[in-house]
Write a structure and sequence with these properties.
It is built from 10 helices and 10 strands. It is of the alpha/beta class. Helix 1 crosses helix 3 and helix 9 runs antiparallel to helix 10. The longest helix has 20 residues.
């Protein structure tokens, strides 16, 4: 069996490709700061998405230490900002167009996880706050330790969740609960996360890695094309009309049956 290969290691992000070439693991690796997020980390996550080889079928997002991510590094709100970039206060004094473009760039770190050629799985333990919550929401599936604590704290800072987290949160738990969770900033613990669909599975913290490995194996079992087509259908299910979704199902199944029958060879 070929050995695992490190494809990226920078700015508290590590990307490792397993020996089969089908599973990529992206690790947040700054446990001393509870994996607080910075613009540099977001740029590294964007690069990780671009570096994924085409044969990757499952991307696992995990984090070192007791916390998945405590959210945005508070240096963002200091006058001096980051060593390698401006503070959010400085960004806020710029033009609206520049600020919009900067936020759009940061959002790219959170949007590639839902692309249809792979399935992304977040392994979440401890705190997943603000940007950390939104990064977990960016993935298709979430396996959570029983000590998980989700919270959306942006409103307490006078901000809004802007890292692609509002849509999946509302889709998972509904508008009313999503509004209440975001505005109050309260913690959502493991039991509630599992009950409301935020967590696909909750396990003891010691079993988190094993549970993710078992899920990954199950996701790899069916043929890749069928998995990708199914993900594509489910991604449009809530936005399509019933008739449009039925047409999409027919088109996808027609492709699958013709391939199985060898009609498109």
């Amino acid at each position: 069996m070929p050995e695992d290969k490190i494809l990226l290691e920078r700015d508290a992000v590590r990307l490792v490709l397993d020996g089969t070439g089908t599973v990529a693991t992206i690790t947040l690796c700054n446990p001393a700061k509870r994996n607080a997020q910075t613009p540099a980390l977001w740029l590294a996550l964007i690069e990780a998405g671009r570096l994924l080889p085409g044969q990757v079928r499952v991307a696992v997002l995990r984090a070192e230490g007791p916390s998945f991510s405590a959210g945005l590094d508070r240096k963002a709100f200091t006058p001096e900002g980051f060593d390698d970039g401006p503070s959010f206060l400085e960004l806020g004094r710029g033009s609206e167009a520049d600020l919009d473009a900067t936020i759009a760039m940061y959002q790219q770190a959170f949007t590639w996880w839902r692309r249809t050629d792979l399935i992304s799985v977040a392994a979440v333990q401890g705190h997943a706050i603000g940007a950390g919550f939104q990064l977990a929401l960016a993935c298709d599936l979430r396996v959570c330790a029983d000590d998980v604590q989700f919270a959306m704290r942006e409103t307490s800072l006078g901000l809004v969740p802007d890292l692609a987290g509002t849509k999946p949160l509302a889709e998972l738990v509904g508008y009313s609960r999503a509004l209440e969770v975001c505005v109050t900033g309260r913690y959502v613990h493991a039991q509630e996360a599992e009950r409301t669909g935020l967590a696909n599975l909750v396990v003891p913290a010691a079993d988190l890695d094993a549970a993710v490995a078992d899920l990954t194996a199950a996701l790899l079992a069916p043929p890749r094309d069928a998995v990708n087509e199914t993900k594509g259908l489910l991604r449009t299910a809530l936005s399509h009309s019933a008739s449009d979704q039925l047409a999409a199902e027919r088109a996808a199944q027609t492709r699958r049956l013709r391939i199985l029958a060898g009609a498109d060879e």
